[in-house]
Design goal:
Radius of gyration: 19 Å
CATH class of the largest domain: Alpha Beta
Number of domains: 2
Strand content: 15-25%
CATH topology of the largest domain: TIM Barrel
Bound molecules: ligand LIB3CWND, magnesium ion
Distance between the termini: 21 Å
Helix content: 40-55%
Shape: globular
């Protein structure tokens, strides 16, 4: 059966070089785990991290596991791709994608679903082409902020157009889309606010950097009790066509949205 990447709220990244983090991720409630070989791993640890990642995915996991390989412009990607060909990884994450070819090479060599990270201005502008080879797009907001030369305190306002472009592209192509990471490890309120924003933007989930972000992420993405009970009332009341429901006009697409919300609530 094809692996669906839709509706996976908690996407946990961790360095493949950290054995204790791998053990913790395996026991976590993450909906997708990404073992990183790229920026979280020091150059001198690249080979051992690659071996550790391949070893880790050979074991059974309760959730799908991805490996983020190194980028096409690095000396490591060739060895990463060969290792992926012989591994049992579910999804391969390709960082800093800027062309369709960045993905097609990895996909053709490995035959695995690819999640493309959009983390540069060029990547955002080429997202439509990149998405044709991808099973999901992931916003790389740290790299994007650096590429756009944003000051550290810029917040997410200057990233909104990029985030919406990523979401629009994913929806137009029929693939999943994930929001970027929140770096503030001890800022619980900041994380919760950003996760809610990600859900409101329409993302399927959020990239996470620490297991303690998983619970708050699920809470932010889960339909609320009010949303669930309104959806149930709407589905029970709707007769088709435009009509008044609790003071608002509703039509067919609102009923479909209510059905999607209830399906998500059941899965949550
Ligand atoms: C950010 C960290 C380096 C912080 O590490 P540390 O201060 O050591 O964390 P703790 O002491 O709180 O850790 C407690 C235990 O939890 C485990 N742990 C920590 N993080 C993770 C994790 N992500 N997954 C699983 N387990 C984790 C620790 O091992 C401790 O376990 P134990 O020793 O048994 O008690 C660290 O959190 C970290 O490395 N996070 C992930 C970093 C990462 O993967 N970065 C790459 C992806 S983000 C990115 O690049 C986005 C994108 O590309 C962009 O451009 O935006
Ligand atoms: Mg990045």
């Amino acid at each position: 059966m094809t692996l669906s990447l839709f509706d996976r709220p908690a996407v946990l990244f961790l360095p493949a070089s950290n054995a204790r983090a791998i053990a913790k991720a395996r026991e976590s409630r993450a909906d997708l785990v990404i073992l990183d070989l790229e920026d979280a791993v020091k150059p001198e640890d690249k080979d051992s991290a690659r071996d550790a990642a391949v070893h880790a995915v050979a074991e059974p996991w309760p959730m799908p596991v991805a490996i983020r390989i190194n980028g096409s412009k690095t000396e490591w990607q060739g060895r990463d791709v060969v290792a992926m060909m012989h591994s049992r990884v579910d999804v391969i994450v390709v960082p800093r994608t800027e062309t369709r070819e960045d993905l097609s090479f990895v996909r053709n060599q490995t035959g695995r679903p690819i999640a493309a990270m959009i983390e540069t201005a060029r990547g955002v502008l080429a997202a439509g082409e990149i998405a044709k080879e991808a099973a999901a797009l992931i916003a790389g907001t740290n790299d994007l902020a650096a590429d756009l030369r944003l000051p550290r305190d810029a917040g997410r306002s200057p990233l909104q157009m990029a985030l919406q472009s990523i979401l629009l592209t994913a929806r137009a192509t029929g693939i999943a889309a994930f929001d970027g990471v929140f770096n503030g490890l001890d800022d619980e309120q900041g994380f919760a606010a950003e996760a809610v924003e990600g859900r409101r933007l329409g993302f399927d989930g959020k990239s996470l950097i620490h297991p303690k972000q998983i619970g708050p992420c699920h809470a932010a993405f889960a339909p609320t009790d009010d949303e669930i009970s309104r959806a149930e009332r709407l589905i029970a009341a709707a007769t088709g066509g435009a009509e008044r429901f609790e003071g608002e006009m509703v039509e067919r697409m609102h009923v479909e949205a209510a059905e999607r919300l209830l399906a998500r609530a059941r899965r949550a």
